[in-house]
Amino acid sequence: MKSFRAIIARDLLLAVRQGGATFLALVFFLLTVTLFPLGIGPEPAVLARVAPGVLWVAALLAAMLSLDRLFQADFEDGSLEQLTLSGLPVGFIVLAKIITHWLTTGLPLLLAAPVLAVLLNMNDEGFAALLLTMLIGTPALSLIGAIGAALTLTVRRGGVLLSLLVLPLYIPVLIFGVSAIDAAVHGLNAKPHILLLAALTMAAIPLCPWAAAAAVKLSLE
Amino acid sequence: MDGLGEFFAMGGYAGYVWPAFGIVLIVMALLWITSVRGWNNSERTLTSLRDHRRRREASEE
Amino acid sequence: MSMHYFANPARFTRLAGRIQPWAGGLAALLLLVGLYLALVEVPADYQQGDTVRIMFVHVPSAWMAMFCYMFLAGASAVGLIWKHPLADLAAKASAPIGAGFTFLALVTGSIWGKPMWGTWWVWDARLTSVLILFFLYLGYMALWQAIEDSQKAGKAAAVLALVGAVNVPIIKFSVDWWNTLHQPASVLRMDGPAIHSSMLWPLLIMALAFKAYFVALLLTRMRMELNLRRIRALRLAERTS
Fold first, then answer.
1. Domain extents for chain B?
2. What is the pTM of this model?
C-alpha cells in the first residue's frame, strides 16, 4: 500500500512539474466546446438542447488525448520495467497510473464542466446531474483508456490507433452520462441512468487494470 | 418474356433489391479472390525459399 | 525450432486441404439454392413488397458479423490461455471475414432502409450496434497491423478481442437504452413482420451457405497465415546464419 501511494505521489509530482498534460486537456476541452456554437449557431435553445451531449463528447475526447502519455514516458526510460521488478503486482502499478491520470485530467475536466455548461446555456436542473455523472463517469474513461494505452505501448505514433481502439469502448459511458443529464433537464428521474453508469465504473475498476496489466506485461517481454 | 421482365422489375424495387444482392456477392467474391491469391503467393514464396535453402546447403557440403 | 512445434500445424494443413474443397462446394451449392429461393420462390410481402427479399442477405450477414466476432474472441481466449499455436492465426484470419460481413450487414440494411424509412440511414438500435461492431473489427485489424513482432501482436490483439467481447453486450445494451429514449413514434422495425415459415427455410439455407463460406475462407486464410509465419521464420534464420 505504501509503495502504491508512493507511485501515485511520484507521478503526481512529475505531472505537476511538467504541468503540460492537465493544461492541454483543459484547453482542448474548452476549445472543442467553443467550436459547437460556432458550428451550429448561437441560438440559446439549440445550445441548451445539445449541451449535455457536447460536454460529454468533448470531455471524452479530452480525456483520450492524454492517454498515450499514461505509460509511455515510464516505458521509454525503463522505469516501468523497474517498477514491475519491484515485486508489486503489475495490476496495482497500472491502477496507480490510472488514478494519477484521473487526478490530472478527469478531475480538472469535472471542475471545468459547469463553467462550460454555462457557456452552452444548459438548464439549471442539469448541473447536479452533470457533476455527478462526470464524477462517476470520468474514472471509467481513465480505466478503459488504460487498456488502449497499454496495448499501443510498443506502437510508434500510436495516438490514432489508440483512439480507434478506445472510442468504441467509451460509447456506453457517453450514453449513460448524457441520458442522465437529459433526464434531469427534462425533470425526469435520472437515477436509473446514474446507477447504470455507476455499475459500469464499478465493473471497470477490477477488470480494466487487470486487462491493462496483461497488455503492459506483453510490451515489456 | 413478360415473366422474366417482371422478375427483374422486382415489383418496382429493382433499384434496391439487385444492388443489395449484388454487393453481397461482390464483397464475398472479392474476399475469396484476395484470400486465395494471397495463399497462392505465400505457397510460391515458401517453396522458392526452401529450394534456395536446399541448394545452398547442398553447395556448402 | 523443434519438429514438435510444426507437428500440429502440418497436420492442420493436411486436414484443412481436405475439408476446404467440400466447404467451398457446399457454400456454392447452398448459395445457389438460397438465392433461387430468396429471389424467385419467396412471395413478395404484402407490406414491404419485394424489398423483403433483401432480408435474406441482410439478416444472415448480421448473424455472421456477430458469429465471427464470437469466433474471434473464442480463438483469442484459446490462444491466451492454452497458448495453442494455431489459435492466434485463426483469430487473425477470421477478422477480415467478420469485417466483410459487418460491412455487408450495414450496406444491405441501409439499402433496405431506404424504401422502408425513406432515408438511407436511421439511427436504429440494431444498425448502430452493427456500426460499432464494425469499428471493433477495424481496431482489431489495425492493432495486428501496427505491432511488428507477430508473437506480440497476436497476444495484444487477443487481449483487445476479449476486452471487446466483454464490451459487446454492454454496448448493445447501452445502444438499446439510448434508442428507446429517442425512439420516433412510427419506425418500422428492421426485423419486419413476424417471419412466416415459408421465409424461414430460405433464410436458414442462406445462413448455412454463409457459414460454409466462412469455413472455406477461414481455412484458406489460416493456411496463408501459417505460410507467412514460416516464411518469416526462414528469412530470420537466413539472416542470422
1. 16-60
2. 0.91
